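Priority: medium. Attachment 1 of 2:
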């Protein structure tokens, strides 16, 4: 639903201005006419959900997961969608999500189809979600599509949790290392700087470097925040530029281990979505649209669009996937077997499960390599500081003895 700004004339002939929430401009004019207003001008502003999200609780993936599972059960039991939305909105603890469900319920009461009401809140949904629900209109199996979406989202949530768990220990080590360097630079080293200056000792190069770093860090600590913030903003800006994002995505796929994790994640998601939609009775060309929308990597998405064009020409799935020359051989072979034996959904799910395990294995290898690298870096920093301080102290003691 969108917020519209309007100007009108009331029954007393006075000019009035205001805002009204409606599905589209004709709907806004109809609602205003019901208020006995003579509409002069109506213009759209921003989606209702976009306004609601600002400064309010974020809708989480788990909220959408539970919604999908509950709605699937209600639809399967023959309960009207309006009643299902009403029950879920009363039971959810997320105020933003409850408001969105109320809005969807009100739209459906006005005759808007469920998928169109859902589309008004697309910002809170995963990229592939709306396409799968819309495709269920072709099969008349909304409950099956919602149940498959719930299963897929649950698997995706579990996979993300495993990835976060695998990266938790290295992240803690990196965080502690950064905090240690900051404490040394801002609080510890300046005291040694004052001591060495009082002794008027000739300091070695390593100590002078350390002192300069400590002086800079204590005086211009804010430059680190500016640099980190600038880097984050710069990366986000670059990823929003189409050409730059394609370049970064292409380079990311070429990074050892990390590239394999990115590729396998893309393959796992594509296979699982295709299997989910195929089991729900959605035509494969519609399923390809949802698979493309689900891809976060522009290189993989581009290959999927090429496959989609081939599918529309009647080539099936196996040959276009093989010709794409980016997907692993194991995935291509399983799709080929699935098409040949009529077990495409089973083979796609098998491929998704296989690459999910591969991602877990690659992440473990990545953390195995990452942990000693972090330890070496921390040891180098601590060793450099220790050598610099010991050399300076030894030099200062030697100078005082000579005097």
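Attachment 2 of 2:
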């Amino acid at each position: 639903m969108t917020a519209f700004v309007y100007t009108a004339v009331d029954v007393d002939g006075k000019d009035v201005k205001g805002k009204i929430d409606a599905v589209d401009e004709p709907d806004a004019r109809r609602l205003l006419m019901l208020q006995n207003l003579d509409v002069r001008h109506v213009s759209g502003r921003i989606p209702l959900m976009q306004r609601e999200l600002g400064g309010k609780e974020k809708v989480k993936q788990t909220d959408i997961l539970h919604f999908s599972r509950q709605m699937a059960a209600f639809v399967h039991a023959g309960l009207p969608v309006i009643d299902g939305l009403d029950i879920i909105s009363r039971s959810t603890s997320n105020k933003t999500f409850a408001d969105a469900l109320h809005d969807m319920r009100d739209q459906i009461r006005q005759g808007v189809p469920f998928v169109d009401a859902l589309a008004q809140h697309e910002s809170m949904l995963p990229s592939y979600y709306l396409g799968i629900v819309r495709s269920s209109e072709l099969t008349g199996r909304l409950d099956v599509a919602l149940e498959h979406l719930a299963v897929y989202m649950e698997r995706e949530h579990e996979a993300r949790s495993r990835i976060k768990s695998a990266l938790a220990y290295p992240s803690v080590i990196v965080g502690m290392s950064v905090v240690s360097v900051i404490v040394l630079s801002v609080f510890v080293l300046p005291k040694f700087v004052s001591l060495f200056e009082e002794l008027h000792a000739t300091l070695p190069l390593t100590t002078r470097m350390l002192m300069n770093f400590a002086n800079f860090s204590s005086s211009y600590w804010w430059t680190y925040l500016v640099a980190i913030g600038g880097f984050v903003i710069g990366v986000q800006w670059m990823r929003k530029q189409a050409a730059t994002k394609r370049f970064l995505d292409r380079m990311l796929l070429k990074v050892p281990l990390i590239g394999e994790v990115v590729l396998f994640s893309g393959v796992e998601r594509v296979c699982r979505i295709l299997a989910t939609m195929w089991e729900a009775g959605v035509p494969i060309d519609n399923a390809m649209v949802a698979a493309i929308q689900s891809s976060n990597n522009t290189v993989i998405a581009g290959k999927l669009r090429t496959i989609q064009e081939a599918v529309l020409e009647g080539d099936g799935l196996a040959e276009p996937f093989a010709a794409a020359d980016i997907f692993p051989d194991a995935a291509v072979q399983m799709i080929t077997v699935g098409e040949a034996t009529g077990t495409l959904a089973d083979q796609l799910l098998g491929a998704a499960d296989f690459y999910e395990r591969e991602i877990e294995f690659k992440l473990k290898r990545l953390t195995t390599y990452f942990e000693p690298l972090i330890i070496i870096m921390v040891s180098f920093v601590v060793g450099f500081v220790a050598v610099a301080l010991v050399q300076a102290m030894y030099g200062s003691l030697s100078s005082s003895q000579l005097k």
